[in-house]
Design goal:
The structure holds two protein chains of two kinds. By secondary structure, chain A is mainly α. Chain A has twelve helices and two strands. Helix content of chain A is 73%, strand content 3%. The mean pLDDT of chain A is 88. In chain B, the strands form four sheets. A seven-stranded mixed β-sheet of chain B has the order 7-6-8-9-10-13-14, sandwiched between helices. A three-stranded parallel β-sheet of chain B has the order 3-4-5, with helices on both faces. The model of chain B has no long low-confidence stretch (mean pLDDT 92). The chains are: A mainly alpha, B alpha/beta.
Chain lengths: 294, 441
C-alpha cells in the first residue's frame, strides 16, 4: 500500500510539471481564442537563454532570469507586430497555422544564438531524495509544486482581480465587440503573450533543470496536450486538476498495467485517460461549453 | 555603339571565366576523393550529433592539411543535414551519392537511416560504415557484404558489460541470485541486447528485469520507482538522447547508486551525463574507444586544424565521446582508402569497387593505430570475409563529474555466443530479402 501511495504522489508531482506547460496554452487560448502551438518553443527559448547566458557569458541566474523575462516581452511584441496584427479577425485555424510558423522561427532563432548542444540549468533547487517514514519524496518536486501554486494564485489574481484581466476576458469573448468599446487588441495580445512568456520562463527553469536544456525539451508539449484535452482550453484551475489526474493516472498505469502489457505505456495511456473523460465531457472538465446559434 | 560592344565583350569574358572555372573545378573534383557526411547538427538529437560531425570533419581536414590528402589525393567532404530523420537521411544519401567523383562510402549515423539505405547501398555498391549502430547481424559478412559494424555491435558490447559485472562480483558463479535491470528505450534499438541478456540470465542464474521506457523519456519517475523497489544489484541503461540524463537523474533521486549503473555504447556520451549534473557522478558506461584528448593525434589537430582556424566547430567539444567517435570513424574510412590505393595504385581516388575491396579485408593493427596518433583511442580492426565487426572489444569508463575516466583495458567479447547469433539472424534476413550469401574461403 505504501508503494501505491508513493507512485500516486510521484504521479501527482509529474502532473504539476505537465500543468505548468499547459498553463501557457490556456492563457493564450483564453484571451485570444488561439491555440498557441509555439508555447513549447517558448519554454525552450526561455531555458536556452537562461542557461546560455549563464554558461557562456557567466551571467548569474538572478540576473539571467529577469533579462529573459524582458526578452519574453520583446518576443511578445515582435510576434504581435509581425504576425498577429496581420491576422486580426482571421479564422482561428489561420492563427493556429501562424503559431506553427512561430514555433519553428523561435527554435531556429534560439539555436542560431546558442547552438543545439545540451546545457545544464541548475539554479540550486535541491534534488536529493527525502524520506518521510518509508515513503520517498523528491525535494525538487516539492519546490516545483510550491512555485506552481504561487504562479497559479498570481495568475488567478491577474485574471479575476485586475482591469487587464477583465479586458483579456472581454477580448476572449468577442474580438470585434471588445474593439468596438475601445479595447486595443494589439496591446492585449502583447500582454497575454508576455504573461504566457513568463509562464514559459518558469516552465523552462523547472523542465530545463530536470532534463537539461536541449531541443528535445519541446516534446514536453506532448505531455501537456492530454492535460489540455482533459482540463479544457480555457480554465487555469482545469489545467492544474487535469495535470494531477493525468500525472497520477499514467504513473499508476505504468506501474500496475505496464508489466501486464509490456511496459512503456505512460505516453499513450495519458491520452486514453483524456479521451475517456472527453466521451463524457467533450469540452473538457472545466472547458466552456460552446453553443452557437444557427 | 561602344556600350553594346563592351557589354558583349564583358558577357563573353564572363562566360569564358565561368567555363574555365568549371573545367578547373571538374578537374579538381576528379582528382579528389569525395566523402559525403550525413550529420545531425539540428533537431532533437543534435547534442549527440554535433560533436561527431565536428570530429569527422576535423580529421578529414587534418589529413588534407598535414599530409596533403591520401598520397596526394585530397578528400572533399560534403555535409548533409538529416536532423536524425530517416526520410531526410535517405534524401541526403540519394542527393550526395553521385556528387564529386561519386561517393564510395557513407556513414549513415543512425540506425533508422541505416535500415533505410541498406538496399540502396547494395544496389549502388557503396560501403556503409555503421559504427556500433544499425543491424548487428551485418557483422556476419556473408550476407551484407558492403555493411561494416566496425568496431563493435550492441550484442558484443553487452557481453563485455556482463563480463565486467561478473568480474566486479568476483566471478560468474556469483551472479546467481542477483537482480539485473535492463532499462531501455522502448524501440528496436533498446531491445537489441535483450537476447544476449536473456541468454546470460538463463546460463548464470541471475534475474533479469526488463524495464521499457517510452521515448523520448522526459518523465521516467514511475519506471524508476519500480526499479527502486526491485533493489537491483546492477542496472544496464540503453537510452538515447534526453532519456539518458533523465534516467540518471531520476535514478539518483531514488537513491540508486550510479556506480552500479552501466550505460550501453550510446548511453556513454557526454550529453548523457552533463545535463544530469552532479547526479551523474560515478555513472559508468561501455564504449568502443578511449575517452578524453590525451592522444598524440590531438597535438596535430591543434597545430594543423584548430590553430589554423580550420576547425569545424568552436572547439569546445574536442575530447568528448561524440567528437572522438567522429575522429575514429573518419580514421577507419581513410585507412580503408589508403589500403585501396596500396593495392590498386597510389595518387588517384579509389572507386567503389576498390573501396569495397579494402573494407572487406581492412586490417588496422594496434601498431598502426599508434602510428596514426590514436593508440588507445581507436580500437584495432581485423576484418575478414565473414567477420565485418572485428573483435568487438569495448572498455568501461566512469564519469567523475567533469571527465570520463577509463576504468578498464579493452574487454574481450563472447565470440562463441554472438557469432552464431549474427549468423542465424543474418541468414534469416537473407532468406526474407532473397539474398544469396557469398562464399568465404
Amino acid at each position: 500500500m505504501m508503494f501505491f501511495f508513493e507512485v500516486l504522489i510521484g504521479g501527482l508531482m509529474s502532473g504539476i510539471m505537465y500543468a505548468l506547460v499547459a498553463l501557457g496554452f490556456v492563457l493564450i487560448f483564453k484571451a485570444s481564442g488561439v491555440f498557441n502551438f509555439a508555447q513549447a518553443a517558448m519554454v525552450l527559448f526561455a531555458a536556452m537563454f537562461i542557461a546560455g547566458m549563464h554558461g557562456d557569458w557567466g551571467v548569474p541566474y538572478w540576473m539571467a532570469i529577469p533579462i529573459t523575462i524582458l526578452l519574453m516581452l520583446g518576443l511578445a511584441w515582435i510576434i504581435e507586430r509581425v504576425v498577429l496584427r496581420q491576422l486580426v479577425n482571421q479564422e482561428p485555424i489561420i492563427m493556429f497555422m501562424a503559431t506553427i510558423g512561430i514555433f519553428f522561427a523561435i527554435i531556429g532563432f534560439a539555436e542560431i544564438i546558442w547552438g543545439s548542444r545540451s546545457r545544464t540549468l541548475d539554479i540550486g533547487i535541491p534534488d536529493q531524495p527525502l524520506f518521510i517514514g518509508d515513503m520517498l519524496f523528491q525535494q525538487y518536486d516539492i519546490v516545483t509544486a510550491i512555485a506552481v501554486a504561487v504562479l497559479v494564485v498570481l495568475l488567478l489574481i491577474f485574471s479575476q482581480r485586475t482591469r487587464m484581466g477583465r479586458v483579456l476576458r472581454a477580448v476572449a469573448d468577442d474580438h470585434q465587440a471588445a474593439q468596438s468599446v475601445g479595447i486595443k487588441l494589439n496591446t492585449v495580445w502583447v500582454v497575454v503573450w508576455f504573461v504566457a512568456g513568463i509562464v514559459a520562463v518558469v516552465a523552462g527553469i523547472v523542465w530545463g533543470g530536470a532534463l537539461g536544456v536541449q531541443p528535445v525539451m519541446v516534446d514536453v508539449a506532448f505531455k501537456a496536450l492530454p492535460v489540455l484535452l482533459l482540463g479544457g482550453l480555457t480554465s487555469i484551475p482545469g489545467a492544474i486538476i487535469a495535470g494531477l489526474i493525468i500525472g497520477s493516472g499514467e504513473a499508476l498505469a505504468e506501474v500496475y498495467l505496464g508489466p501486464i502489457i509490456g511496459g512503456g505505456i505512460d505516453n499513450w495511456f495519458a491520452y486514453i485517460i483524456a479521451m475517456a473523460f472527453m466521451v463524457w465531457r467533450p469540452e473538457g472538465l472545466f472547458g466552456e461549453k460552446i453553443i452557437e446559434r444557427i | 555603339m561602344t556600350t553594346p560592344f563592351l557589354k558583349k565583350a564583358a558577357m563573353i569574358g564572363l562566360g569564358a571565366a565561368i567555363g574555365l572555372g568549371s573545367v578547373f573545378a571538374a578537374q579538381a573534383q576528379a582528382s579528389e576523393q569525395y566523402l559525403p557526411s550525413l550529420v545531425y547538427r539540428t533537431g532533437p538529437f543534435a547534442p549527440s550529433g554535433i560533436g561527431f560531425a565536428d570530429g569527422f570533419a576535423d580529421y578529414v581536414t587534418l589529413i588534407n592539411e598535414r599530409d596533403g590528402g591520401i598520397n596526394g589525393v585530397r578528400i572533399r567532404l560534403e555535409e548533409c543535414e538529416t536532423a536524425y530523420a530517416n526520410d531526410r537521411g535517405v534524401e541526403c544519401y540519394e542527393r550526395l551519392k553521385d556528387r564529386g567523383n561519386g561517393a564510395t562510402v557513407v556513414a549513415p549515423l543512425s540506425t533508422g537511416i541505416t535500415y533505410a539505405v541498406i538496399p540502396r547501398s547494395r544496389r549502388d555498391g557503396i560501403v556503409l560504415s555503421t559504427m556500433g549502430y544499425g543491424r548487428a547481424d551485418a557483422a556476419y559478412g556473408r550476407v551484407l557484404d558492403n555493411v561494416f559494424m566496425v568496431p563493435t555491435t550492441y550484442w558484443s558490447s553487452m557481453t563485455a558489460t556482463l563480463s565486467y559485472i561478473a568480474e566486479q562480483e568476483g566471478g560468474w558463479d556469483n551472479l546467481r541470485g542477483k537482480d539485473i535491470v535492463h532499462a531501455f528505450h522502448d524501440s528496436a534499438y533498446g531491445r537489441e541486447p535483450l537476447a544476449v541478456l536473456r541468454h546470460y540470465a538463463e546460463e548464470y542464474g541471475f534475474t533479469l528485469h526488463e524495464m521499457a521506457i517510452s521515448p523520448p523519456g522526459v518523465e521516467q519517475r514511475s519506471v524508476w520507482q519500480q526499479i527502486r523497489r526491485i533493489n537491483p544489484d546492477w542496472v544496464s541503461l540503453y537510452g538515447w538522447g534526453v532519456m539518458n540524463p533523465t534516467a540518471i537523474r531520476t535514478a539518483a533521486s531514488m537513491g540508486i547508486p550510479r556506480e552500479r549503473m552501466i550505460g550501453g555504447i550510446y548511453a556513454a556520451q557526454d550529453d548523457a551525463v552533463l545535463p544530469a549534473g552532479s547526479a551523474a557522478v560515478g555513472y559508468k558506461a561501455v564504449t568502443f574507444h578511449g575517452p578524453g584528448a590525451d592522444y598524440p593525434i590531438y597535438e596535430d589537430l591543434q597545430r594543423y586544424v584548430y590553430d589554423a582556424g580550420l576547425a569545424a566547430g568552436d572547439g569546445d567539444l574536442t575530447g568528448t565521446i561524440a567528437y572522438n567517435r567522429g575522429l575514429i570513424n573518419a580514421g577507419y574510412i581513410i585507412e580503408a582508402w589508403r589500403q585501396a590505393q596500396a593495392e590498386f595504385g597510389e595518387g588517384r581516388p579509389s572507386t567503389r569497387e576498390e573501396t569495397l575491396w579494402a573494407w572487406q579485408q581492412l586490417q588496422i593493427p594496434e601498431s598502426r593505430t599508434e602510428e596514426l596518433g590514436m593508440g588507445g583511442l581507436m580500437p584495432p580492426v581485423n576484418i575478414t570475409c565473414e567477420n565485418h565487426e572485428g573483435d568487438g572489444r569495448v572498455l568501461v569508463q566512469q564519469w567523475d563529474g567533469e571527465n570520463w575516466v577509463q576504468l578498464t583495458d579493452w574487454i574481450d567479447t563472447n565470440r562463441e555466443l554472438v557469432e552464431p547469433m549474427y549468423r542465424e539472424s543474418a541468414m534469416r534476413y537473407a532468406q526474407e530479402e532473397g539474398i544469396t550469401p557469398r562464399e568465404c574461403d
